[in-house]
Request: fold
Amino acid sequence: MIDDRSQQTADWQRHPGAYGNRRPSALRAAEIEPFRVMDILGHAQALQAEGRDVIHLEVGEPDFPTPPPIVKAGIRALKAGQTRYTPALGLPELRAAIAGYYRQRHGVTVSPARIAVTPGASGALLLALAALFDPGDELLMSDPGYPCNRHFARLLEVRPVGVPVEAASGFQLTAEAVTRHWGPRTCGVLVANPGNPAGTLIAPAELAAIHAQVRARGGWLLVDEIYHELIHDREAPSAAGLGEDVLVINSFSKYWCMTGWRLGWLIAPEGLMPAVERLAQNLFLAAPTPAQHAALAAFDPATLGILNRYKAELRARRERLLPALRDLGFDIPIKPEGAFYIYAGLGRLADDGEVFARQLLKEAGVAITPGRDFGQHDTTRHVRFAYTTDGARMAEAIDRIANWLVRRSAA
Amino acid sequence: MIDDRSQQTADWQRHPGAYGNRRPSALRAAEIEPFRVMDILGHAQALQAEGRDVIHLEVGEPDFPTPPPIVKAGIRALKAGQTRYTPALGLPELRAAIAGYYRQRHGVTVSPARIAVTPGASGALLLALAALFDPGDELLMSDPGYPCNRHFARLLEVRPVGVPVEAASGFQLTAEAVTRHWGPRTCGVLVANPGNPAGTLIAPAELAAIHAQVRARGGWLLVDEIYHELIHDREAPSAAGLGEDVLVINSFSKYWCMTGWRLGWLIAPEGLMPAVERLAQNLFLAAPTPAQHAALAAFDPATLGILNRYKAELRARRERLLPALRDLGFDIPIKPEGAFYIYAGLGRLADDGEVFARQLLKEAGVAITPGRDFGQHDTTRHVRFAYTTDGARMAEAIDRIANWLVRRSAA
Reply:
């Protein structure tokens, strides 16, 4: 976390004048770091505006369209005038459909009363953190990890404590690490399963052990499962089955390809739901209504058939990209089992992921994400590839990277 | 603000068992009060489930459908596959369209670079408060006022300071009151113009005087204008014209009848926009994409023609409801100039607005909002009527209230 106002002051100094004797804006805002990938994206767009062809392997968003049955349900809802507020926790029929999904897909009984439909997983995380934690409370999370998580905590004056993780544990927390890092102000643990940036899984027994340790300490376990339907090599149970005290965050964005609709959900202990509902009433009013109606088609067999074809395509991309990157000299000790990411060590290729990513974009027209976006622990020596681009373009990207590396070492 | 965990403990005790030795949830969550109107709504729905006919004068949501040109634009966007993330601050063409609205409607130049498209006005308020204020900072706001405002502040550990306002100032802050209540920790002032619950306006000269006082003290003025297009009796300038240092919050929900789409916007000083963008990236990713495309039709002449007919209908309802309520004995010293609310003192009719609202619902089938939802200052002696129900039903509601009052005084 940046511990001064340098970012803020820089923002401010670019715009002198109209602000008089105002103090600079909140320390909170100053401490929220920009995504470095946004700089990459900005450069990429500038290059594209000059007519350059850029291949995007940086974007954490599937390139598939929302399945037509979902789109059609959304259009039907709009035509029927379904454009007013829903209840704060969501349409009862959607909460019931999500409960049905846990029953059928995972064999887990989750009462619809424990499900809050939210504006994206972002909304779910905000509700969970706001309901559970007070200022000064500490929340353990992996470093590297999804950057928004620590920023959400910061927003609420909750202290995100990054626990360094490495390839040995699949870039995930372990029960041992949780125990070792648990302190007097620790109140909970947040994991993502599969994780971002590495796409790796916590083994079911390890997650159960983490849960037991957290529970024994009177804390809360939060599990982000937004990539859980994108696990390629095995079936993995949902953390919702570990106990009613586990908070599960999920989203229609990734597997269901509904990013722009902004729809997710939170499963929380029943005793917490009145607080969750009060927070939702105040912070959101409700999740977007057209999206909620569209998502009623999310669990239809026709939809799931389409999504499983998308998923098979993602798996095929991984099977192609992973060995290609290893051949090029990237250090990827663990095969990612899920999501659509490969977290690659730079090995002997380079020293600094941010410089590497910028040069790769400028000189070869391939955009990737610097590891530094994901935390502090050895992240400058990593980059993340997202296989969210179709096979032909991905193959072209691999060729470009290969040729660029050859040119570079020849130079 | 509730200052203990009684609400929280009550939630918790209803669900003993699975939570082991967990501490109860965050003090923050415990201190966020439920909307009392939600109890009324719950009772209303229970009555309706029993077959009772209930007239809703409690809901702060227009009963008009989203104008067809907006719906059609939304459907076109869905058919064209516009379902992926937009930039964090919104579609550039929508930001430009909003800037055009300020230019044409208000003669004010607002750079699109100063406009953030947000998930509802809620998202705009969250961004503004998170960007400007740190824990312990104090924010002046009217009491009574829109309840979510103080809860948003509480979420961020910012202290909402309710300034008692009365009919004499139109239930709005004045420059004098701001000056009198400004303390060493005060960092800003939040007003709504027109206000909720009273639908009253701050005169342009008064708002300019408030701005001057706030600016002189190095604070920030935030103006919620979500009802600004629903001013019935005069033209009022937007606070965006007062200076680039004023933060303006607005929404497509009320005038444009897009509540369920969840779309609003924030105008902020240009120097604050990098912080606003970083916060938006982390907290929302972006506002809902279908809604943003739909809103591109919000400023079309065809849309505005429809909306002006809606607005005329609201005005006609006010002209009917206001004298009727006064005739019945409600104390309404100020004619509300905008929004779709009437904030009515109970006069000699009753002592407690919450009891009054509950009885009125149960015995006459009319749902209204207890004044207590809006703050502490003399709010128990008030109720709020929303004229968001069509003329015939509203006339029926007036009859029901009249007959009920007669029965009550005869009993």
Notes: Chain A touches chain B through 91 residues (CB under 8 Å). Residues 1-5 of chain A have pLDDT under 50 and may be disordered. Chain A is about 40% helix and 15% strand. Residues 231 and 338 of chain A are 4 Å apart (CA to CA).
